[in-house]
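Worked example (supplementary).
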Amino acid sequence: MHEWSLLIFTLCMQAAIGGTVMLLIFYKKLSKLDPEQQFHVMKLPLVVIAGLSLIGLAASFTHLGSPENALNTIRHLGSSWMSREILVTGMFIAVACGAAGLAFIQKKVNVWLLAAGAVIGLFDIYCMGAIYYNTLVSGWNSINTYTSFYGTAFVLGPILIVSLLVPFLKAKNEELAQAFVKNAFYIALGGIAIQLIGVAIFGITAPEVNQIAGVNVMDALEGYQTTVAIRWMIEIIGIFFIGYLSIAMNKKIPIYFAYGALAVLIFAEGMSRYVFYVMGA
Amino acid sequence: MAQLGFYINNDYCTGCKACVVACKDKNDNEVGVNFRRVYEHSEGDYVERDHAVIQNIQTFFTSISCNHCENPKCVEGCPTGAMYKREEDGVVLVDHDKCVGCKYCVWNCPYGAPQYNEVLGKMTKCDFCIDLISAGENPACVGSCPMRAIEYGPIEELRAKYGNVSDIKGLPNSSITKPNLVITAHRNAK
Ligand code: SF4
Ligand code: SF4
Ligand code: SF4
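After joint prediction of all chains, the assembly is encoded as:
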């Protein structure tokens, strides 16, 4: 596996996009607070989302052999999914940074930018999936590619946002904080369910080999069963953390629980993405 | 000029790799960068009959470069338009002024033709030795083969002479990119 740049790029972008969707979902409830307080609790997540998308951008540049030609990559929108993805990713990053910047200038969050970011971002994940789905690499041309990418967004996004929001919110509005953790828990469960559907489809479709000297995905992944098993174990532990937090928060559970869950889930999603890129190596 | 293509006499090929070396030499390619490659395909095993162990192995070699395909998936996926199929003879080339070195074409070619050059940070591949051809010479691989197993020319002429086979054992399905390739299959490759 030598696609570390792409691994970091896809994880950061999907986490940022999932996070944007979550902020939009939480926005309405947060508008119960007065605008200044609302800005105060949302500013950290906004900055982190913008930061993640910039880290993703930087990582994607390290994948290129001739980054000075980067602007050429949107010249073939007519047939290349990679061109389309690069354009849409650029739009998402612009909106994410714009939303964070504007919030600091106006001291309030612009919900329309948030909504635009969520819509562009969700389409961007589709484009990312299409890049791999349309190659000839055995295993990538499966629905699993899309479900894995959307799943990552819906697992990492919610956990990222609660671990950034809740510490600030807890002091101001305990009840709201509790509700957010619960929401995040359910959405992350949904993200895992999406991934499991993809894994099931992957398992029942016979993989094709369409490249000379190409390796059948089942052979490529031989030897990675343990990695996959460990990944699922870690993922379940992470989700369990959040689930526990969502029912027991008022019992003075330290908020580090959420950070722990986030770290564990990032690791699990990273392992899953590692195995994904093994197929193409 | 008409679409150019290669003819491979799979039945004659001994797997000596003179074509690979001639190509590497002409293009001054580093270790690991091979515009033409020879793939070995082996099947079968030793079988025991009475007191003898009998060899029952079928092997053949396939020499492949770029097939300058009719539907080049490499061109379709390339984000920059660097990979292109030129009008006059259908040769597929990489424009290094445009290439960003994303390597996406590697995942889109069925035949392993795009070969990444780490030093240049660009994709490189078989250009049909268009410089040699326009000087009236043979492409390096064609000229080097001791078995005369590689020919080139307008694909229609090659097809009229040798038929339409471009699917043999071990090669990806030709319907994916419609390669400009004609093969006389080895008896074990049919
Ligand atoms: S053989 Fe591969 S690189 Fe050559 S034209 Fe066909 S798809 Fe493109
Ligand atoms: S490496 Fe170059 S030729 Fe290949 S897809 Fe990327 S930009 Fe196109
Ligand atoms: S030079 Fe001729 S015989 Fe030798 S490997 Fe190439 S095609 Fe086969």
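Two points are worth noting when inspecting this output. Residues 65 and 189 of chain B are 18 Å apart (CA to CA). The pocket of iron/sulfur cluster (ligand 1) is lined by residues B 66-69, 72-74, 92, 109, 111, 113-114, 125, 177, 179 (CB under 6 Å).
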